[in-house]
Amino acid sequence: GDSVTQMEGPVTLSEEAFLTINCTYTATGYPSLFWYVQYPGEGLQLLLKATKADDKGSNKGFEATYRKETTSFHLEKGSVQVSDSAVYFCAGQAGTALIFGKGTTLSVSS
Amino acid sequence: NAGVTQTPKFQVLKTGQSMTLQCAQDMNHEYMSWYRQDPGMGLRLIHYSVGAGITDQGEVPNGYNVSRSTTEDFPLRLLSAAPSQTSVYFCASRQKPTSGGSYEQYFGPGTRLTVT
Prior knowledge:
The structure holds two protein chains of two kinds.
Chain A: E1 3-6, E2 11-14, E3 19-21, E4 23-26, E5 33-38, E6 44-50, E7 56-59, E8 62-65, E9 75-77, E10 86-94, E11 97-100, E12 104-109
Parallel strand pairs in A: 2-12
Antiparallel strand pairs in A: 1-4, 3-9, 5-6, 5-10, 7-8, 8-9, 10-11, 10-12
Chain B: E1 4-7, E2 10-13, E3 19-25, E4 31-38, E5 42-51, E6 54-57, E7 64-66, E8 76-78, E9 87-94, E10 106-107, E11 111-115
């Protein structure tokens, strides 16, 4: 069946460091892909998405490019802030449902 | 718009008790889903619905029932609570995807359930 695999955490960075969180998917066809973010004590919010190969999603300084060749959708940010500390989930649209990765916890210190 | 609302925010149950987690959305979304979130497991799909009167099972449906009598509401019923159902439960909704497209899924704030 369809599945999403993302880098296990936790990831601990200093402010202004470069961030990469890896995500790969296995699916029939080429599903839309998403990154969601969950801040402490809250529900999930959409961070960015891409609906087809070579699409680049971007928001709040975060970027991810849909790579069909490597079935990947890695999340990147050039300079993280303390306020980026959260749990990040990669997800793929599998038919009528979204399939989520296990989440990656990011902690950024000043 | 209130978006997706869930009640209660916190609940403690004893083993064997039953209860209903409420979920409502005011965005006229056709698709609604229930997930549970456990440490190290990410979000796992319990049940979902593609419209009023239509529901289906997700990855972990055992011990849970759902119904969808209206577009707005999608309650989740725990039939006989077990400690393994201690978790954070999230309800979500989104528009029906169009061909070649997709829509953002909106999440409620969650219900933290403890079964003792």
